[in-house]
Design a protein that fits this description.
The basal body constitutes a major portion of the flagellar organelle and consists of four rings (L,P,S, and M) mounted on a central rod. The protein has 369 residues and is α+β, with helices and mostly antiparallel strands. It contains six helices and 26 strands. A hairpin with a 5-residue loop joins strand 9 and strand 10. It starts with a helix and ends with a strand.
């Protein structure tokens, strides 16, 4: 027979395991936001792509100047007033993202896009070019052969065939990092975790989860940011971040919203939307005009002229639509069923949702984009 003390110990162990276990539908903190300072930086640059099969910029001034600057590095100077008519070269813009903690010598993927009259960059090679940050400093150097996912063909009779976008391509690992960005990560006594979306409930739950694992270390700054005490060097901070990122949090239900795209007629309803009791009717009025012109001939020997007599038929038709009673819904599936029973197209559905919102029967924010 199990003793009372043994039962109490087993019960305490069970409660402890339930208390520290993450909920079945819990999400990791790392999926709800990111630590401040761990951000990418955009890099841009200007360059020249050479080796094109006659699909370059031809006589554009800025591509000519760019090529003159490129060849001047090797001691070649073009005579004044000479236009090389660069059919096999094109001026391009280069873009890339510098990830956090990137170090000199590491490689980056870059995107290269034509900015002139070039029809295709297929088969081209980007000449060595610098990539600049927002502060005007050079952070990477790039060159290499382009990979183009598009195709453009012109025939002698003017026919054209274009597949995807041949005037833009990528160079995998084409850029070499020359300068690192100081994030200030290893200094200071605090880390800041920013949620992807403002939500006071989620901020509270993340703070509580961190304090449960590391008592007294976290406090809310606002509904989107949590301050976490962290002294020590980079190793200590990274271990703390790893521990925090993998904690489980039960995400709060989002605010009720109905998103309407007025251009495409797309309607998206999230699971928090509720509808109260309302009566809805939706009418459809159609007007059709039929023109039946008739040719009228003059009587014999009347010296009259042939004329066209207009004949128009106008018909107005209004479809009968019964009044639909919309009952209070408690779930998204019930709301979808009610909408399907109405049998209205997306355009009319938008008007009905707006009317329900004005009548106070729609407990949701209506967002029209």
């Amino acid at each position: 027979m199990i003793q009372r003390s043994t039962l109490l110990a087993l019960l305490a162990l069970l409660l402890a395991s339930l208390g520290f276990a993450a909920p079945a539908s819990a999400e990791r903190i790392k999926d709800m936001g990111q630590f401040q300072g761990l951000r990418a930086n955009q890099l841009t640059g200007y360059g020249i792509v050479v080796g094109l099969a006659g699909t370059g910029d031809d006589s554009l001034d800025y591509s000519t100047l760019g090529m003159k600057g490129a060849v001047s590095r090797f001691g070649l100077t073009l005579p004044a007033g000479v236009n090389p008519a660069l059919k096999n070269a094109a001026a391009v813009m280069i873009t890339a993202e510098l990830p956090p903690f990137a170090k000199p010598g590491q490689r980056l993927d870059v995107t290269v896009s034509a900015i002139g009259k070039s029809k295709s960059l297929r088969g081209g090679t980007l000449v060595l070019a610098p990539l600049y940050g927002a502060d005007g400093q050079i952070y990477a150097m790039v060159q290499g052969n382009l990979v183009i996912g598009g195709l453009g063909i012109d025939s002698a009779d003017g026919s054209k065939l274009t597949v995807n976008v041949p005037s833009s391509g990528r160079i995998a690992g084409g850029a070499t990092i020359e300068r690192a960005v100081d994030t200030g990560f290893a200094t200071g006594d605090w880390l800041t975790f920013n949620l992807h979306q403002f939500d006071a409930t989620n901020a509270k739950r993340v703070t509580d989860a961190i304090n449960l694992a590391i008592p007294g270390s976290a406090s809310m700054i606002d509904g989107a940011s949590i301050a976490i005490r962290s002294a020590g060097n980079g190793d200590t901070r990274m271990r703390l971040m790893s521990q925090i990122e993998n904690l489980g949090v039960q995400r709060a239900e989002p605010p009720a919203k109905v998103i309407v795209n007025a251009r495409t007629g797309t309607v998206v309803i999230n699971g928090a939307v509720r509808v109260g009791t309302a009566a809805v009717t939706q009418g459809k009025l159609s007007v059709s005009i039929k023109e039946s012109p008739m040719v009228v001939q003059p009587a014999p020997f009347s010296r009259g002229e042939t004329a066209v007599e207009q004949s128009s038929e106008i018909e107005v038709k209004e479809d009968y639509r019964p009044v639909m009673l919309v009952k209070p819904t408690a779930s998204l599936s019930e709301l979808v069923d009610a909408i399907n029973r109405m049998g209205v197209p997306p355009g009319d559905l938008v008007a009905i949702l707006e009317a329900l919102s004005q009548a106070g029967a729609l407990t949701a924010e209506l967002v029209i984009i």
